[in-house]
Amino acid sequence: MADQAAYISQESAQKAVEIIKQAKKIKSYCAPCGDEKAETIRVDEVKAKYTNYENFWEVFLTYSPRINSGDSGFRAMVADK
User: Fold this and answer.
1) In degrees, to the nearest 5, what angle opens at C-alpha 14 toward C-alphas 70 and 57?
2) Where are the domains of the chain?
3) What is the pTM of this model?
4) CB count, 10 Å around CB of 76?
5) What is the distance between the alpha carbons of residues 29 and 35, in angstroms, rounded to a whole number?
6) With contact defined as beta carbons under 8 Å apart, do 55 and 10 qualify?
7) Other C-beta atoms lying within 10 Å of the C-beta of residue 15
8) Are 26 and 43 in contact (CB under 8 A)?
9) First vs last Cα of the chain: how many Å apart?
10) Are 27 and 38 in contact, with CB atoms under 8 Å apart?
11) How far is Cα of residue 30 from the mean position of the Cα atoms in its chain?
12) What is the pLDDT of residues 25-53, one digit of tens each?
């Protein structure tokens, strides 16, 4: 369900990358994944990547694993205006 917000413009993707780089920590939350609450994660790397589809881009990041979790990265979902 979250994939609807994955494909965004290059401008929005680059703006999101800059915001996330400055923040260094962000909240991770995915209701369709069953998350009960948002968790703070430390971002290790973030970049905008071309999707190879039309003019759409995505924001990808890797982060330090959350406690008791094997997670190490995910596709960030950023709404495009």
Assistant:
1) 70
2) 2-76
3) 0.71
4) 23
5) 6
6) yes
7) 17
8) yes
9) 19
10) yes
11) 11
12) 888 887 877 888 888 888 899 999 999 99
Token pair in block for residue 17: 């990358």
Task: Specify whether the CB–CB gap between 30 and 6 falls below 8 A.
Answer: no
* Non-local CB neighbours of 25 within 8 Å, separated by 6+ positions: 40, 41, 42, 43
Give the span between the Cα atoms of 28 and 38, in whole angstroms.
5
- Scored b (16 or more CB within 10 A) or e, 27-61 reads ebeeeeeeeeeeeebebeebebeeeeeeeebbbbb
Token pair, residue 41, equals 């994660």
pLDDT of residue 81: 43
Beta-bridge partner residues of 45: 62
Which residue in the block uniquely carries the two structure tokens 């290790």?
44
Q: What is the mean pLDDT of the chain?
A: 80
Query: For the chain, what percent of residues have pLDDT higher than 90?
Result: 38
pLDDT on residue 80: 47
